[in-house]
Each structure stands twice: as structure tokens, then as C-alpha cells.
Amino acid sequence: MRIMTRGRLGAVVAHGRTSLPSLGVSLAGSSVWATFAGAGAFLNIRHWETASHQAEVTTLFVLGGFTAFAPALFAARFLSGRRADATGRFAAMFLSLALATTGITALLFGLEYRTYYAEWHAETFSYVWGLQLFFTMANALYQFAVIGMRFYFPIGFAAIFVFSLWFARAARPDC
Hints:
Layout: H1 6-19, H2 23-45, H3 51-80, H4 86-117, H5 127-148, H6 155-169
Helix pairs in contact: 1-3, 2-3, 3-4, 4-5, 4-6
């Protein structure tokens, strides 16, 4: 195993700095991406009986999309680098945006799920509480994977495709 030298680590840090998206691009992209994520969820749940549940689930997906865009753009820029071809840039954005959005939304769902069950959990930071927290979050993530992932189709999938095309076709990597 080779240890990074100071020069190599410095190059990685410098590449990370150049991979940071601007605040304007982050906010605009986050807003548009959140709109698509929320619209996809809302269209899949519009037949639910209560408007409050529709609003809660839609808000969860909007927050997940808004929070995920900037880290996904950073990851895509970091992974694709300046010399990557359009195919590599497309793949980097597609994977980064899909993983960040589903991961952050699932985490938010897990935290909401855990908040509901906190009333019946043991004293905070005890061993039993740690087990309860772990298994509650694991159960929430499983439920999100089984039930919540379908809310991204078809709008979210099409939007990821469009955002990835935008990123791949950008004239310069600092989009």
C-alpha cells in the first residue's frame, strides 16, 4: 500500500477546490432538481386520501432533491475531471445525482421514521438505544428502497437523464 505524498495530496485538494460549483449554479440547480423530485413524488401519490400525507411526502422528496444537487454536482465534477470525455461526464453526473438524491432522501425518511419511534426507544445514548436506532434506521432505509424509490419514476429518471446531458455537453467543466 502506497502512502500519498504531500504533493499528491495537495493536487487532490486543489482538484477538490476547482470541483466546487458556484453558489449560483448550486442554488439554481438545487431548485430545479427539487422541483422535479417533488413533482415525481406528487404525481405518484396524488390519489392518496389525505392531503396532509401528500404534502409530507412531497416535501420530503423536495428537501432530498434540494439538498442532494450541490454534493452530486461536486462529486460529478470531481470524478469526471477536466479531461474526461462527454460519456464519462454523463456517467459521473448520472451516478452522482442518482446516488446523492436517493441517499439523502432515504436518510431524511429514516430520520423522520426514527422521530416517530423515539417515544418507545430506550434512554438516549444507551446501548439498547444504539441498537434501536440502528435497526429503526435500517428498517426505514429498507422501506424507502422498496416503497419510496418508485416515486422517482418516470419524472425523476427522465430529469436525471436531462441533467446528465446538460453536464456532459457543458462547454467547460465549471458548470
